[in-house]
Design goal:
It is built from four helices and twelve strands. With 205 residues, it is α+β, with helices and mostly antiparallel strands.
């Protein structure tokens, strides 16, 4: 399984609330994203260089899907927060074959000119209390990051804390080999991202 860090997901009760929170925290406007008809969600995006940050929420104008939404949004409550990290692979089927049970089923999705395959978990929740990365395989050569305005914000560090961090590390089989990603052992699960911005260092949790 060869994985690379692709993007970070901020879940929010509403897209407006999540957008305002990130814009205030990082000091930059988010770009328009779009709607995901298959999942009943919509998003806004922020360039992080070769990565991007996504604020995602349930789209109140969309029909409720027959199965649980991705990023466990059906059960999301509380203020906006960093809930998921997403890794890309060149072979989603192979990645899922070696991933823990519950990592999801490969689902073909699209938005505008973007095409991708995404591992959507049947319950909406990923292994290790959502600390295992969501898996994505982009189709073609199009990726959202280069199309987004660059405000000079870059990810410095992503800390994933979980009581079973050693088991999570084993499940990842050493992937992704990204020095910014750190797996830490702690009493409860959490994600914490540190960014460099034109306004100094900022943190999202």
């Amino acid at each position: 399984m060869t994985l690379a860090l692709d993007h970070l997901a901020i879940a929010a009760a509403t897209l407006g609330e999540g957008t305002a929170w990130v814009e205030m925290a990082l000091g930059a406007p988010l770009a328009q994203g779009g709607h995901h008809a298959h999942m009943g969600t919509h998003n806004r995006l922020l360039n992080l260089g070769e990565l991007y940050l996504e604020v995602i929420a349930i789209d109140p104008t969309a029909p409720k899907p027959a199965s649980p939404r991705w990023f466990d949004l059906d059960r999301f409550r509380g203020p906006p927060r960093l809930t998921h990290w997403v890794c890309r692979t060149d072979d989603l089927d192979a990645a899922l074959a070696s991933a823990p049970k519950g990592a999801g089923a490969a689902t073909d999705l699209s938005r505008g000119d973007f095409r991708w395959r995404f591992a959507v978990p049947a319950t909406g929740c990923l292994p290790f209390d959502d600390c295992f990365p969501a898996l994505i395989q982009w189709q073609g050569d199009r990726h959202p990051a280069p199309a987004l305005p660059d405000h000079g914000i870059r990810l410095q560090r992503l800390e994933i804390t979980h009581p079973a961090a050693s088991a999570l590390r084993s499940a990842l089989a050493g992937q992704p080999a990204d020095p910014r990603v750190r797996l830490l052992t702690g009493p409860c699960q959490s994600l914490r991202a540190t960014f460099s911005t034109p306004h100094g260092t900022r943190v999202l949790t």
